[in-house]
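R.M. (postdoc): so does anyone remember the format we settled on? I'll just put the structure tokens first.
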């Protein structure tokens, strides 16, 4: 079960966006596994993708198509990642775009394909192609929940976020969905994220907004340290709500739009952690007092990736020496351990590099028993800070991944 509040909010309709889905039997029967987004003509689209060198065929195709034009359609399948599939996989990703382009009356390069699921198996392309007409026939502006459900793999719950905001008297909407539960580690995670707004945003600025928002959201989460082959995040701006186009970061509206986008993406990213495979606890790791952001992130991820730390948290065992150990091997040069302070929520466990004098095992156990907690580290060497979100490592994580292809 997911940790904490993972309820789907009311998903506001975004003008200029329609969504369709179908049961294409990509891998499993009787479930939505094919989703299509249709964007109104003139929509600006930006994307970021996995850094994994073994990136999936649809990632390769999407990156090329996005350089050629703005997308009119997104097509997403679950159950099969179409990664590690060689020339055949690439051909299947391209064929998906060709077939949808024929049905929708657009150009092949105006379509971006996405896949998620098992790596190393060929995509059942005929099943996917056969499902396209059904998905197109079901296009509807109010189908965000269907889409969130249709892109799930080992997720236990659909993930969505939605806000309405006002700029210069015009009410705009921003709505998004994500999926991911395992193989999560930036850049980015085994995740797919799709966000749309009806505000008009110039494409270059949309790319800048996406880059900034990703770095405080999807690039600050980790479940198991594995960077997927298929990670993709797309933001579309249809401009259909009217108002002036946002074309400069000096525009006073820029900061507000970035704030909304960051909140949407942080919620979607944190939902992935709350639904981490086998997760029983949601953990915030906040590192401050660094010389730069990179060393703060290095230490945060070192703690977040430690199997010893994660299993101790699962067991509610305040074995805080494991946290110090992870800080020490993070690779930060010239680290003065005698300046380091560490807290579990409000309980200081380490003071000036050693055990805090007033720390008690009972207080540590109290915090470790919570379903949500913060590990805060002060390095005492600068002003930089950053935050990473993770979860514990449970018996069920092993079981889920051992049985993944069953």
């Amino acid at each position: 079960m997911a940790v904490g509040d993972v309820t789907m909010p009311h998903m506001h309709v975004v003008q200029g966006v329609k969504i369709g889905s179908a049961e294409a039997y990509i891998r499993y029967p009787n479930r939505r596994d094919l989703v299509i987004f249709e964007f109104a003509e003139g929509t600006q689209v930006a994307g970021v993708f996995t850094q994994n060198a073994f990136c999936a065929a649809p990632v390769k195709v999407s990156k090329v198509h996005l350089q050629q034009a703005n997308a009119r359609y997104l097509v997403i399948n679950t159950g099969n990642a179409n990664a590690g599939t060689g020339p055949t996989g690439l051909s299947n990703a391209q064929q998906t775009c060709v077939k949808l382009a024929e049905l929708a009356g657009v150009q092949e390069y105006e379509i971006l394909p996405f896949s998620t699921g098992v790596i190393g198996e060929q995509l059942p392309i005929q099943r996917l192609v056969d499902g396209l007409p059904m998905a197109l026939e079901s296009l509807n502006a109010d189908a965000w929940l269907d889409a969130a459900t249709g892109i799930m793999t080992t997720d236990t719950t659909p993930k969505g976020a939605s806000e309405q905001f006002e700029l210069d008297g015009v009410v705009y909407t921003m709505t998004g969905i994500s999926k991911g539960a395992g193989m999560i580690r930036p850049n980015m995670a085994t995740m797919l994220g799709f966000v749309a707004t009806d505000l008009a945003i110039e494409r270059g600025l949309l790319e800048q907004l996406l880059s900034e928002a990703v770095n405080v959201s999807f690039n600050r989460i980790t479940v198991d340290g594995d960077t997927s082959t298929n990670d993709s995040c797309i933001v579309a701006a249809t401009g259909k709500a009217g108002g002036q186009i946002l074309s400069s970061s000096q525009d006073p509206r820029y900061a507000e739009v970035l704030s909304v986008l960051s909140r949407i993406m942080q919620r979607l990213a944190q939902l992935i952690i709350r639904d981490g495979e086998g997760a029983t606890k949601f953990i915030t790791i906040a590192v401050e007092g660094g010389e730069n952001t990179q060393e703060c992130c290095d230490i945060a991820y070192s703690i977040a990736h430690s199997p010893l730390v994660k299993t101790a948290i699962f067991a509610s065992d305040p074995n805080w020496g494991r946290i110090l150990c992870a800080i020490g091997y993070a690779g930060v040069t010239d680290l003065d351990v005698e300046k380091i302070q560490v807290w579990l929520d409000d309980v200081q466990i380490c003071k000036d590099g050693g055990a805090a004098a007033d720390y008690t095992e009972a207080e540590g156990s109290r915090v470790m028993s919570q379903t949500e907690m913060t590990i805060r580290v002060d390095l005492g060497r600068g002003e930089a800070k950053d935050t990473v979100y993770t979860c514990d490592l449970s018996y069920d994580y092993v079981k889920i991944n051992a049985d993944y292809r069953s």
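R.M.: ...and that's the designed sequence above, right after the tokens. Also worth knowing: The chain has eleven helices and 15 strands. The radius of gyration is 22 Å.
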